[in-house]
Design goal:
single chain, about 650 residues, alpha+beta, Dna Ligase, domain 1, D-amino Acid Aminotransferase, Chain A, domain 1, 4 domains, 6-stranded antiparallel beta sheet, 4-stranded antiparallel beta sheet, 23 helices, about 10% strand
């Protein structure tokens, strides 16, 4: 008989738990020294002498050991048997053999029999046993390389003081870290007395995760210990809770640009409502069938979701809707590329009948020919809605009037906003077709050429706020107002300055806030402070531009150039017909992109109106004694706010 080590384990069946540790150790991962007693030798009369001799020869400096089961069905992809078999920690050398036998006996416990029955396991259970050097840990914990809730790009680290049993059995206070693998940001939740580890150690643990994922190629549940700043890996197994034949896929590849980091509950609930309204609208526009649209109502309500404070696309539901469209197999790859979708797997089956699909094709073709007219109508209508808001909204407006104003906005804007989704698709498709056409006729740098064809739109709507901000900053420098602005320390002083001054700058300053006061980083988060809600932020931005006059003048000159038609030279060998086709595709792509930018700026303005409404409601709730701070309203959701206005009683502070 021989004990099994890294040198000789490969020809033996020892269970996944033991195999994983040896494989990790082989690949350079720091794993405490260990050996394994194979299931074949647990009953051997030689086992006791063999183990004691091996301990004496190889672990002279080790005082304590852990003795763990390694059942052959344990920690597999289907069944984990977590917590079912005996584990012993802090075992002295002279008791190791006894604990090996006790480990073996746990194979026949009542709990194991019950678990096997519940899981439908009929195979005979066998076990190997792992004996490992015990780490007297300063901190221990568990890492999930994917959040077991189903958030695949989020790792979870749970850490507490002492050895791992305290963490797993919830005997010690723990801190949970939620690490987003896309943007490499994290937040954490603490308990009284739980440890806080520094950013460097978090990154080290995440690096271990990435190395182990490369080795094992799956989502993992990892136990670790930290002693004197050294990280030790104690156990590696799959996260069995992630197995699903029909998973919900959350993806933030594109939406993270609009909602980075943590997003407030109020914003989350508004985003869910907005996406629901828009997608239900576009489905009806294409299907023209209320019965089918209502059938998919649960899908429309879950186009976006949130987990641990972050906003995600429920991307599997997006595929369901896109498959309503004609040529969806060709559209999906273009859409995936334009949106930056990272998970490209989706179900292949059809979701509506052939007769309805034919109707959808006719409806979609009609909408495609009329999408630009629809966008012009929406843009004109939005100007009327914006005027209605400013005519209706006033200081100290009451909550019931604010609720009515919100409903008016939602009805006037969101019922037609779905056309923007078709316009986005229009722009995506024609850009994709242009790129494909250039590639087909043999243009080597077709990606760059595509960008050239749709570039040169300096008058694009999204550029206007930047151009006007630079112009405002240049005016401040030219008129010598910059020192006065630099001396304004707070919003109150700014307000007094604006009221006391009558100048072109003040007129332009107020006009900028009226037109672009909501255009700012993270502008789609209702909780974000904007130029409109905090004009001092605009002063700070003007002063920032004013620090470098040479750069400011260069920006002003560049941004005020007239639209330049970029001439793309094509080979004379390309026929006139093909050149006209390229010109037609580029013109339509540019029109889609231009209208997309207009709708995005209008969306920002709409969110600004909604922000003003909820800000006013928050202030009113403070006056009524319902909230301690007006900003607290962002920690409620829309239903809670509106139900409160309608008379439902809440104890919000508690």
């Amino acid at each position: 008989m021989e004990v099994l080590t890294l040198d000789n384990y490969k020809n033996h069946i020892i269970g996944k738990k033991a195999e994983n540790l040896f494989l990790a150790k082989y690949n350079g991962i720091t794993v405490p020294e260990l050996f394994v007693i194979s299931h074949n030798y647990l009953e051997s009369y030689e086992m006791e002498d063999c183990v004691n001799k091996y301990l004496e020869d190889n672990f002279t400096k080790t005082q304590l050991f852990s003795v763990r089961s390694a059942a052959l069905l344990e920690d597999g992809k289907e069944n984990s048997f977590a917590g079912q078999f005996a584990t012993f920690l802090n075992v002295p050398a002279d008791l190791v053999v006894r604990k090996i036998n006790e480990c073996k006996q746990s194979l026949y416990s009542e709990n194991v029999a019950l678990y096997s029955k519940e899981q439908g396991i009929t195979e005979e259970l066998t076990m190997s046993v792992i004996v490992q050097e015990m780490i007297n840990a300063d901190h221990s914990g568990v890492i999930f390389t994917a959040n077991p809730q189903g958030i695949l790009n989020e790792s979870v680290i749970v850490i507490g003081e002492g050895t791992g049993d305290g963490v797993v059995e919830e005997k010690v206070a723990t801190t949970s870290y939620y690490y987003n693998n896309t943007d490499r940001l994290y937040y954490y939740e603490t308990m009284d007395g739980s440890p806080i580890i520094d950013n460097e150690k978090i990154e080290e643990l995440i690096n271990y995760c990435n190395k182990l994922k490369e080795i094992f190629g799956e989502y993992l549940d990892i136990e670790f210990a930290i002693k004197d700043e050294q990280v030790y890996i104690l156990q590696i197994r799959p996260i069995t809770s992630l197995k699903s034949s029909n998973p919900t896929i959350l993806d933030n590849s594109n939406i993270v640009e609009s909602y980075p980091g943590i997003t407030s509950p109020l914003t989350q609930s508004f985003v869910e409502f907005a996406y629901y309204s828009v997608f239900k609208g576009v489905a009806y526009r294409c299907l023209k069938n209320k019965k089918i649209v209502e059938k998919y109502d649960p899908i429309f309500r879950q186009m976006v979701g949130s987990a641990n404070g972050r906003v995600y696309y429920k991307i599997s539901n997006w595929y369901t809707i896109i498959k309503f469209l004609p040529f969806s197999k060709k559209i999906i790859p273009i859409w995936q590329e334009m949106m930056g979708v990272s998970n490209k797997e989706h179900e292949k089956e059809n979701n509506i009948s052939l007769i309805h699909r034919i109707r959808v094709y006719f409806n979609a073709v009609y909408e495609a020919f009329n999408v630009q007219k629809g966008m012009e109508k929406l843009n004109k209508n939005f100007d009327k809605v914006e005027k209605l808001f400013h005519d209706t909204y006033y200081e100290n407006i009451e909550n019931k009037e604010l609720l009515k104003l919100y409903d008016t906005l939602a009805d006037a804007v969101l019922k037609d906003w779905d056309i923007t989704l078709l316009n986005d698709m229009y722009g995506f498709i024609y850009t994709g077709l242009l790129k494909k056409k250039l590639k087909k006729i043999g243009i080597k740098d077709y990606e760059q050429q595509t960008n050239q064809y749709i570039s040169g739109i300096t008058n694009i709507e999204s550029m206007k706020p930047i151009r006007e901000l630079v112009a405002l900053s240049k005016q401040v420098v030219d008129e010598g107002v910059i020192e006065k602005l630099a001396n304004l320390d707070n919003e109150l002083e700014l307000k007094e300055f604006i009221l006391s001054e009558e100048s072109d700058f003040i007129k332009n300053f107020n006009n900028y806030i009226r037109l672009y006061g909501d255009r700012i980083t993270e502008e789609l988060k209702l909780e974000t402070k904007t130029f409109r809600s905090n004009p001092k932020l605009l002063i700070d931005k003007i002063l920032e531009y004013g620090k470098d006059i040479e750069r400011l003048n260069h920006l002003h000159k560049t941004l005020n150039l007239k639209d330049i038609k970029v001439e793309v030279k094509l080979s004379d060998e390309i026929t006139k017909r093909k050149k006209k086709s390229i010109e037609r595709l580029s013109r339509r792509a540019m029109q889609g992109i231009k209208n997309r930018e207009i709708s995005r700026l209008n969306r920002t303005r709409l969110y600004g109106m909604v922000r003003s409404i909820f800000g006013a409601i928050g202030s009113n709730m403070v006056k009524e004694g319902t909230l301690d701070n007006a900003y607290d309203i962002f920690y409620l959701n829309i239903d809670e706010v509106f139900n409160y206005i309608k008379g439902k009683s809440y104890d919000f502070p508690s």
